[in-house]
Write a structure and sequence with these properties.
single chain, 193 residues, alpha+beta, Immunoglobulin-like, 2 domains, 5-stranded mixed beta sheet, 4-stranded antiparallel beta sheet, 1 helix, 9 strands
């Protein structure tokens, strides 16, 4: 970082008269100290605001994404889950199929984040479910983020048929950060083995 100090030379021929004539070195020192103090104050405010902006992105939104997802598996309807894949990890999403001897469960979580009063509306379509009612494959999303992460889960039994499936996220993001709605249309491929 370079250091720049402006100096003003005052001579007896300068157009300063009477009370306005001051010691050059004293005036520059005082001016320089005030300038440095003002700069440091602004720098501290900038750092505080910058750190606050980083902190509000949340642990899952390190890249500043407003829509994020994760998929986890579970061995029982009440059991704990183990993460299989997520938006920021380039690993394939692979789930074990349900069998007559062993039922597999999965939890898909949609995470959203935005500045105060950001609304996310749309649908979430999960095709790997083992449910005779196809209306349950589709979930309506209506989430509002007030500068914090908000999420919605779909916990379900995994299909018995192996193959390629997907989760489709279609959302419209509206809020004070943008005058136009932002459209999110994501497809997450899921392999059932």
């Amino acid at each position: 970082m370079s250091r720049y100090v402006a100096r003003t030379e005052v001579t007896e021929d300068s157009p300063i008269c009477g009370d306005q004539h001051r010691s050059v070195h004293g005036e520059n020192s005082s001016f320089r100290n005030k300038l440095i103090a003002k700069f440091m104050h602004r720098l501290v405010l900038l750092l505080i605001c910058g750190c606050y902006g980083c902190a509000t992105t949340g642990p899952l939104h390190g890249g500043g994404q407003s829509v994020f997802w994760s998929l986890a598996r579970a061995s029982s309807a009440q059991g704990s889950t183990t993460e299989v894949c997520q938006a920021e990890k380039p690993t394939p999403c692979v789930l074990d199929r349900s069998t007559p001897e062993r039922t597999s469960y999965a939890r898909f979580t949609l995470h959203v984040f935005g500045p105060k009063a950001t609304r996310f509306r749309g649908t979430l379509l999960v095709s790997y479910l083992e449910d005779p009612d196809p209306r349950r494959y589709k979930s309506e999303i209506d989430l509002i983020s007030n500068n914090q992460e908000v999420h919605q889960h779909i916990f379900s039994r995994v299909t018995t048929v192996p193959g390629q499936y997907s989760v489709r996220i279609q959302l419209e993001e509206t809020g004070p950060a943008s005058s136009e709605p932002r459209i999110h249309d994501l497809v997450v491929p899921v392999t059932i083995r």
